[in-house]
């Protein structure tokens, strides 16, 4: 008993600082670096294998952004949701709906694009807001609520029209063909918009209070609430952002494919979620970076290009490769989180 | 006087039965059809086969019932399986591609082998899901997402991206054939449902599943080997999905890796929820799920018969999901119907007590313990 | 000595819950620059008092005066704004964010909506530095051990006043030390002393008596929702404190005690050697004989439950080994213990015992069924007979095996749990506070049951908060204090509650 009653040495409050190795492993930027490395390795592999088939052209690299710009925008929206600890399954349907909605308004109703774009974005944001509202206020799992969103928006696509609507509007086609030259290659409007969205998302997540709240509620929602953060509003806002991004992705997709189709972007929510996870964001929330999401999208895009270059490989290998990557990253995440707790 | 006093209590007992609301919804939906198709309930006999709206609802609903029955057990353990759609596609693809490689597509042995192969693949998928959930401790939604993403690719790989069409009489039987005047698939469904009920209620499996889903920590402390049970349940769910996959591909005599069983996981989850099994796990009802699946199929049929454009089907489904989930949400009930109703509803078994405790103060220290002398 | 004016004064506090008066007419004072202990056992009203003070509960009567002004505290946010901060046992911070962010989140310095990271880090570093802590504010919180996270939580709470420097007048530390080791506790104490020197009034709750005597200046003792004393720590020794908490003077206790125990214990059943778990309980040796009832005595949080959980494999031990019936048992999971014939009724009936959705019958047969595996269901006739037998034997009401167990009263739920384990015919039955929160009648029945089980040869490990209860039932009494099994005393006529009490208070048995 004597040992425990000794008087403490006044201000001896040194704290053991974590070892370097532990710090490196615990660093939240590590998964992003891993994905970036994976991308570089795959790109290097592509260069080595297809160097005589024009893989080294800068445009091949830029095409990754052009062909996946809409996915990047959608995945950025999903990043917000997953960072906050939720999930959004309605992304693909929302994209499909936006293509239909836009095509229908432009082609069938003859509205100018300048009016249609804000309308489409507003509808997307409103959809996201409503889902967030229900999730927060009625405490229903996000999975189920956004599942209802998936049904609803895909259904609304079909309500607009069962048939595909191709867009012949001159503004749309000139926008679609517009290119920004970068010397060695060019980027489409869609690619540029997606990069702008990425930059804005990065700023919002890292330099605004809202962004930090997203991380906080993803880290521990209960704590965030007890710390006095408005966790309900943040949650609703996160789904609104995702809805808005999906609608914007839908617009870019419309531009990319120049038609509206009720079956456009079926299952794209899975691609977006996969990109986010491969980009190193923890599915349980609270840890990850939009920059990782960029690499996740690029990796998925590169899989597609490599399969194209390979020629003999068929498109379904994309899905299989995505699944395998997803699995690997989920297992790695799992090991990292258990190791941290131990 | 005696009759007037017993009738309400009997009525209450009836409305309190867990199957009351699902069945009521089903009957209501069926009745909606009558003004539009007066002979909706009639069943005709032609060529020795029974025809009629009721028969076709069960026939077309068969795969969904199968998948939903498997899903019920997974959900009862507190999990979820998103991969069933992909498993449907894989099983159909494997069975059909095996049959199409045979010289004699009608040979019974070949067909049986093909089916066995398909179901084996399904069970392996289930084992993988169960392994990830129970052994690795990954959230079920995430764990089953992997096969949901990769599975369709695998199915297309098997079919080489084509829609494989086959011409096999024995194989046609499962999903499109008739037996004793009824579609054969009805017998398959009946058999699977019967086996499931027997498996869960004649053995102790149902009890243990409900215990694991109802209170995981208590189950651990009572010595239930919940890992084994979870793995088994995911395997069973995949097996059911596999049978559904055989049925779908048999019905169309084709395997479509891309579209077979598309969104069936969502319909199945919906069927389970309508059938009264809570998504939080615990008590489950196979009967409720069957009724739930029939409700969904009837909804599709009804939309078709009353002349609403079929494409609105999904919108209706979304509405059903939203309404059912809102009604299950204790918070929603408290806000809309008042706290009293919510409490009564919860006590009836609508929600788990933890979720029902909307008032944190009441939950944490409603009755401070007074045991110190 | 002229007393300074208290920074916080609570007078005549009343708080009622349906059917229970959790606090009746409690007075409480807190002076600037003191560390004040709030003491009491389960149900004494400690946490209710804190929740009233922090605005989680609204009070039903009485007044709160802060800095001479009467205040109404309606929400935790209001409490914070008034200068009352709380740090709970569980660290309520975001482990994924950096230390600096955790200190400032929600009130980060911004310019035009942009967070000024440099300024934020600098200010956090200054704050941490001023309090004499050596923490890298840029590192993620999760890279630090729990103790440091606890310190960060305190730093954050100090800053809630807004504006410059600590605006906190009252700091409530609710069991911050329960999972810290000795060095970590010293760190925390040095921070507490520093804050005390700065004039902050600290309300400290801990189950460790030594810590109270080490760091606190004064203490307030509650029992059954009433104030039983306010003392300078130096004026009240540990025995006196324990008496106050348990509420009986020594003489009074002894009269209640009567002996009716046999002492012809059988062979050794369970032998634990050096069994222990970091953060749970220090390694201990324990021998349990066949038919023996071992009672565990000790204050709340002294390690009673932790000991029981180790013996059941509910928590994995770090050290030591257990042999049951001469065979070593690994104790890595409850299954191991159950297989060796150990049964455990948790004190948390709701979260760790019952499956509330299932019926009484299903809950009763759960343990037996789990040991048989799913393929061998108990035959219906045998099952119904067993269930009926135990419902009758334990007088479970309603006597309806179909009733949902969640709807039963606490006493009946406890009996269902007992029935669940008795049906498996265990060799050792561990009962953790089986009589807590249940009515007198059910309490007596359960105690009678324990005696008869022991006479039939079953060993029982019995945990209860009441000393008399432990003494009345036990052949041997294990005394716990500050997460340590400090004594094992053979019960006998000379063993009185006051002697046990002395052991609890001093940690030594003469």
TrEMBL record, chain A:
Chain spans, region Disordered: 1-20
TM regions (residue ranges): 30-48, 60-83, 113-134, 182-205, 236-258, 270-303, 315-332
InterPro entries documented for this protein: ABC_transp_permease
Chief place of localization: membrane
GO cellular component: plasma membrane
Record keywords: Cell membrane, Membrane, Transmembrane, Transmembrane helix
Location of this chain's protein in the cell: Cell membrane
Membrane topology: Multi-pass membrane protein
GO MF entries: transmembrane transporter activity
Superkingdom, taxonomy of origin: Bacteria
Ranges of biased composition (kind: Polar residues): 1-18
Protein name, per record: Sugar ABC transporter permease
Originating organism: Streptomyces humidus
From TrEMBL, chain B:
Record keywords, A-Z: Cell membrane, Membrane, Transmembrane, Transmembrane helix
Membrane-topology descriptor: Multi-pass membrane protein
TM regions (residue ranges): 19-38, 50-75, 82-100, 106-128, 140-158, 178-199, 231-248, 260-281, 288-308, 314-330
Cellular component terms (Gene Ontology): plasma membrane
Locations listed in the record: Cell membrane
Matching PANTHER family: ABC TRANSPORTER PERMEASE PROTEIN YPHD-RELATED-RELATED (PTHR32196), GALACTOFURANOSE TRANSPORTER PERMEASE PROTEIN YTFT (PTHR32196:SF19)
Name of the protein this chain belongs to: Sugar ABC transporter permease
Originating species: Streptomyces humidus
TrEMBL record, chain C:
Cellular localization per UniProt: Cell membrane
Stored InterPro entries: AAA+_ATPase, ABC_carbohydrate_import_ATPase, ABC_transporter-like_ATP-bd, ABC_transporter-like_CS, P-loop_NTPase
An example molecular function term from Gene Ontology annotations: ATP hydrolysis activity
SUPFAM superfamilies to which the protein is assigned, alphabetical: P-loop containing nucleoside triphosphate hydrolases
Domain ABC transporter span(s) in chain numbering: 8-249, 256-507
Membrane-topology annotation of the record: Peripheral membrane protein
Chief place where the protein resides: membrane
Transport found in the keyword field: yes
Pfam families the UniProt entry points to: ABC_tran (PF00005)
Entry GO terms, CC: plasma membrane
Keyword tags: ATP-binding, Cell membrane, Membrane, Nucleotide-binding, Repeat, Translocase, Transport
UniProt KW Cell division keyword: no
Protein name: Sugar ABC transporter ATP-binding protein
Organism: Streptomyces humidus
Lineage, broadest ranks: Bacteria, Bacillati, Actinomycetota, Actinomycetes, Kitasatosporales
């Amino acid at each position: 008993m004597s040992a425990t009653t000794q008087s403490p040495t006044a201000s001896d409050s040194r704290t053991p600082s974590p070892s370097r190795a532990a710090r490196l492993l615990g660093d939240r930027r590590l998964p992003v670096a891993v994905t970036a490395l994976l991308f570089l390795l795959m790109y290097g592999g592509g260069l080595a294998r297809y160097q005589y088939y024009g893989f080294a052209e800068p445009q091949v690299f830029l095409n990754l952004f052009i062909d996946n710009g809409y996915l990047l925008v959608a995945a950025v929206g999903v990043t917000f949701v997953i960072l906050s600890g939720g999930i959004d399954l309605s992304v693909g349907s929302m994209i499909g709906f936006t293509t239909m909605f836009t095509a229908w308004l432009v082609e069938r109703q003859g509205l100018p694009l300048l009016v249609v774009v804000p309308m489409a974005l507003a509808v997307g944001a409103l959809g996201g807001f409503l889902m967030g509202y229900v999730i927060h206020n009625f405490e229903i799992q996000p999975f189920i609520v956004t599942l209802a969103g998936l049904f609803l928006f895909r259904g609304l696509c079909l309500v607009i029209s069962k048939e595909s609507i191709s867009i012949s509007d001159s503004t749309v086609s000139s926008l679609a063909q517009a290119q920004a030259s970068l010397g060695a290659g060019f980027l489409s409007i869609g690619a540029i918009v997606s990069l702008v969205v990425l930059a804005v998302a990065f700023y919002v997540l890292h330099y605004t209070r809202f962004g930090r709240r997203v991380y906080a509620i993803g880290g521990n929602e209960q704590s965030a609430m007890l710390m006095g953060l408005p966790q309900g509003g943040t949650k609703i806002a996160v789904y609104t952002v995702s809805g808005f991004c999906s609608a914007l992705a839908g617009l870019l997709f419309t531009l990319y494919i120049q038609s509206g189709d009720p079956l456009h972007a079926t299952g794209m929510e899975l691609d977006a979620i996969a990109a986010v996870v491969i980009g190193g964001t923890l599915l349980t929330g609270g840890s990850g970076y939009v920059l990782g999401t960029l690499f996740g999208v690029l990796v998925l895009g590169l899989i597609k290009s490599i399969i194209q270059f390979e020629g003999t490989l068929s498109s379904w290998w994309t899905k299989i490769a995505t699944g395998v990557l997803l699995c690997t990253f989920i297992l790695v995440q799992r090991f990292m989180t258990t190791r941290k707790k131990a | 006087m005696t009759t007037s006093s017993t009738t309400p209590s009997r009525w209450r007992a009836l409305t309190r039965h867990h199957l009351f609301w699902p069945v009521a919804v089903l009957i209501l939906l069926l009745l909606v059809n009558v003004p539009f198709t007066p002979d909706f309930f009639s069943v005709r006999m032609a060529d020795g086969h029974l025809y009629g709206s009721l028969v076709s609802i069960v026939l077309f609903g068969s795969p969904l019932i199968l998948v939903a029955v498997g899903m019920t057990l997974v959900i009862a353990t507190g999990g979820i399986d998103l991969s069933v759609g992909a498993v449907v596609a894989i099983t159909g693809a494997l069975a059909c591609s095996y049959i199409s490689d045979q010289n004699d597509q009608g040979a019974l042995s070949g067909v049986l082998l093909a089916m066995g192969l398909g179901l084996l693949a399904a069970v392996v998928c289930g084992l993988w899901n169960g392994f990830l959930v129970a052994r690795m401790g990954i959230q079920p939604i995430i764990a089953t997402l992997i096969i949901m993403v990769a599975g369709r690719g695998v199915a297309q790989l098997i079919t080489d991206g084509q829609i494989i069409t086959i011409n096999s009489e024995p194989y046609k039987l499962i999903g499109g054939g008739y037996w004793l005047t009824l579609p054969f698939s009805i017998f398959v469904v009946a058999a699977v449902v019967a086996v499931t009920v027997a498996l869960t209620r004649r053995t102790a499996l149902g009890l243990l599943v409900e215990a694991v889903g109802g209170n995981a920590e208590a189950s651990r402390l009572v010595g239930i080997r919940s890992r084994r049970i979870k793995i088994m349940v995911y395997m069973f769910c995949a097996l059911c999905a596999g049978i559904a996959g055989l049925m779908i591909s048999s019905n169309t005599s084709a395997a479509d890796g891309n579209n077979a069983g598309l969104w069936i996981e969502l319909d199945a989850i919906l069927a389970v929820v309508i059938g009264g099994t809570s998504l939080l796990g615990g008590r489950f009802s196979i009967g409720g799920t069957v009724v739930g699946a029939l409700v969904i199929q009837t909804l599709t049929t009804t939309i078709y018969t009353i002349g609403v454009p079929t494409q609105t089907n999904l919108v209706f489904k979304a509405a059903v999901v939203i309404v059912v989930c809102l009604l299950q949400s204790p918070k929603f009930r408290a806000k809309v119907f008042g706290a009293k109703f919510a409490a009564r509803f919860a006590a009836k078994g609508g929600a788990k007590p933890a979720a029902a405790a909307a008032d944190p103060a009441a939950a944490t220290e409603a009755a401070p313990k007074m045991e110190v002398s | 000595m002229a007393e300074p004016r208290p920074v916080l004064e609570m007078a005549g506090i009343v708080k009622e819950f349906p059917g229970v008066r959790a606090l009746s007419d409690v007075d409480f004072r807190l002076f600037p620059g003191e560390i004040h202990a709030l003491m009491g056992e389960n149900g004494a009203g400690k946490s209710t008092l804190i929740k009233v003070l922090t605005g989680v509960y609204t009070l039903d009567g009485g007044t709160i005066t802060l800095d001479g002004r009467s205040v109404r505290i309606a929400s935790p946010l209001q409490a914070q704004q008034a200068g009352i901060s709380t740090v709970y046992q569980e660290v309520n911070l975001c482990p994924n964010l950096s230390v600096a962010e955790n200190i400032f989140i929600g009130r980060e310095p911004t310019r035009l909506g942009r967070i000024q990271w440099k300024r934020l880090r600098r200010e956090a570093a200054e704050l941490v530095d001023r309090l004499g802590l050596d923490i890298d504010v840029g590192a993620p919180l999760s890279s630090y051990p729990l103790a440091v996270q606890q310190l960060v939580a305190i730093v954050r709470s100090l800053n809630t006043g807004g504006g410059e420097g600590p605006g906190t007048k009252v700091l409530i530390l609710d069991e911050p030390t329960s999972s810290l080791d000795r060095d970590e506790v010293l760190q925390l104490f040095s921070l507490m002393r520093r804050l005390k020197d700065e004039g902050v009034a600290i309300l400290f709750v801990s189950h460790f008596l030594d810590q109270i005597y080490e760091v606190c200046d004064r203490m307030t003792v509650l029992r059954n929702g009433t104030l039983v004393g306010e003392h300078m720590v130096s004026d009240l020794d540990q025995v006196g404190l324990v008496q106050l908490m348990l509420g009986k003077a020594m003489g009074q206790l002894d009269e209640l005690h009567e002996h009716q125990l046999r002492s012809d214990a059988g062979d050794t059943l369970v032998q634990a050697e050096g069994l222990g778990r970091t953060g749970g309980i220090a390694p201990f040796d324990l021998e349990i004989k066949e038919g023996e009832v071992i009672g565990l005595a000790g204050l709340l949080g002294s390690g009673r439950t932790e000991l029981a959980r180790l013996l059941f494999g509910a928590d994995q031990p770090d050290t030591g080994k257990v042999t049951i019936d001469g065979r070593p048992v690994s104790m890595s999971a409850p299954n191991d213990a159950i297989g060796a014939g150990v049964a455990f009724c948790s004190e948390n009936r709701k979260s760790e015992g019952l499956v509330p959705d299932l019926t009484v019958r299903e809950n009763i047969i759960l343990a037996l069924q789990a040991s048989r595996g799913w393929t061998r269901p108990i035959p219906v006739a045998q099952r119904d007979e067993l269930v009926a037998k135990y419902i009758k034997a334990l007088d479970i009401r309603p006597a309806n095996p179909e009733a949902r167990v969640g709807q039963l009263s606490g006493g009946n739920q406890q009996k269902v749990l007992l029935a669940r384990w008795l049906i498996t015919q265990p060799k050792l039955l561990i009962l953790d506070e089986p009589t807590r929160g249940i009515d007198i009648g059910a309490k007596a029945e359960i105690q009678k049951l324990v005696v008869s089980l022991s006479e039939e040869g079953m060993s029982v490990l019995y945990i209860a908060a009441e000393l008399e209860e432990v003494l009345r039932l036990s052949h041997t009494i294990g005394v716990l204090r500050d997460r340590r099994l400090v004594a094992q005393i053979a019960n006998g006529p000379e063993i009185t509650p006051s002697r046990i009490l002395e052991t609890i208070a001093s940690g030594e048995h003469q």
